[in-house]
Each structure stands twice: as C-alpha cells, then as structure tokens.
Fold this sequence. Notes:
By secondary structure, this protein is of the alpha+beta class. The protein contains ten helices and 20 strands. It has a six-stranded mixed sheet, sandwiched between helices. A hairpin with a 2-residue loop joins strand 9 (203-208) and strand 10. Helix 4 crosses helix 5.
Amino acid sequence: MPEIRLENLIKCYGAVQVLHGINLSMAENEFTALVGPSGCGKSTTLRMIAGLETVSEGEIFLNDQPISHLEPKDRNLAMVFQDYALYPHMDVARNISFALRLQKRPKAEIEAKVREVADIVGLTEFLHRKPGALSGGQRQRVAMARALAKDSDIFLFDEPLSNLDAKLRGQMRAELAVMRQRVKKNMIYVTHDQIEAMTLADRIVVMHGGYIQQQGTPETLFKKPNNKFVAGFLGSPPMNFLQADLRREDDTLFAIGDAFKIAIPASKSKELGQTSGHVTLGVRPSDLIYAPDAQDATALDLQVKISEYIGAQSVLLCACGSADVTVELKSETPIALGETLRFAVRPEGIHLFDRKTELAL
C-alpha cells in the first residue's frame, strides 16, 4: 500500500487561489479525514489527488513517484462521491461489477468479487434489486461496494453520508467503522461533520481558508488545539470563548473578564512565564461542572437563559456578564430559568489563545 505525499500543493482558479501550499503525508493503511467548513479546500484537495482537478503548483507523490500528470484511471484509486452515481437500469450486482466488466475480467472472478464486497457492506440479499428499490443507506453501500470491487490501494470518500438523515448517518458511520477494520487500505475521507471525523479517522486534518490549521489524532486535536479555529470547530457543543486579560497577583496568574476571575493552573501558568495582556479564555461545555460550593477563583457564576433537554443530558445556554456560555450537565440536575448557578472549571479544561493571532498559548 502506498504512502501518499502532497508537497506545496497550490490550486488557483484564474486569479483566485483556493489552496495555499498544502504539505501533507498519509501513511499506508491510514484513515485520514480532511475536515473543515464549506469552501476550506478539502474537496478540492481530494479531487486533485483523484486527478479530477489539475494541480496549479506542487506535486502529489505515491511511494515517491509523482502522479499529478497521470490520468485518474492510471492512479490505482477508487472514489465514493456525495451523490451515489448509480446506473438505475442495472441491478446491484451489475453496478458493483461495472469497472471489472470494463476491464474484461473473467466472469468467475467478477462474480466472486461481487459476492465478497457485497458481504463486507451487507448487500448480499439485495444483489438482484435495482437502485430504485433501495433505501438511501443501501444505495450508498452499493457505491462503496463498487469502489471496493476495484481492489485499489487508495479509497477516496467525498462527503458520502451528507445526503442521509441523522439516524441513517449514524448507522452508516458505524458500518463504515466496521468496514474499515476489514479492509486494510489507505482511506482519505472528506467531511464537514466533525463527529464523523472524530469517530472514524486515525488522523484528522483540519482545513480553513485553503490552509491546514492542524493535523493529528482526534484526541490530540480535541485536547491540544493549536489555535482558536481548531478549538471551536472540533467538539459538540462547541467550545466557549470569553474575552479576558491575564494578570499576575502574587504567585497566581488570573484570567479576568466581564463577571469572572479564574485562576490559571500552576502547570499552565509556568509555561506562560511572565505573559500578560489580552487573551481569549476557552472552556468546553463538558469542562464546566455544577458545583454550588466551588471557590471563587475556580468557578463561573452563570445565569440560565435556555435549558434544552436531550435525554440523559441537558444543554444550558447561560449568560456570563455580556457573553453567552454553553454548559452540559446531567438532566436530573434541577434547573430553573433565570437562576444563577455556580460551575467549577476543570483546571485541565482551561485553554488560552492570543486575542490577536488566535494561536494557543
């Protein structure tokens, strides 16, 4: 299986530059998710790897061999699109085997391969149905099976679940994870859904404005974001951000803002040294713990504006001075709208960002 490497990849449409020198290496047998908001360049990057978009500058390497000049059919890859792109007049078996029949493979080999991939994606009993008789999730599985049948070294997925409803998307996400364990191949998965990226990928590449903001394991990006954009993009509900000033009083560093004064943990304070000035304090909703008796320097006093009951948990929208703060807590906690509650801030959940550069401190 090949190592995929992008070197200083640039894409321009006329005078508009949409990718700004992308450098990225993807190891063999790795599931890499390219994630970011619409227009960040993730699908353009994937289409350049596939050969569906030309490279303006830079190079794409497979096992150190440049491939940006090759036609898509010569790159030994398979792609699953956002739209299923199935042939409505062909049954499932013929849709899956289409590429193999074009290659004039032996009939017995084609039948064996169709049975094999149909078993992987759970379509064995639907092989003689036509796409019109299938659900959306089943059609997406046919598209995946067609890609798997090619037996390529690289599989590219361009937002394959975005056309499905929420329940089916969750089901297909689980099926993709199972398939990933059975099919040991390089997979590059483009999505705007950070939950898909977090649950499926070995490595996440967060993109914004045509630049890579950060790459790493889901846990690394969640716990140690490089900048405010990555911190706010990953996590649901998203991270809370509060404007603050750093001020050292005796041996303690405080983040002081509108209606709060939070002590920065000693470990983080040591890393910051004598840093002072304007910062953004970031705290995830799950790092705010309902604690009526918490000390002033470790807690936020929040006035409840909205309470959303979602089963085992409730999500609260609260006011902290003039800013809004989201909190997650167990739904059995008694909450009254308009009530002011105290929430302790987990020390390890405190993130600080330079207010000007938005880089993590």
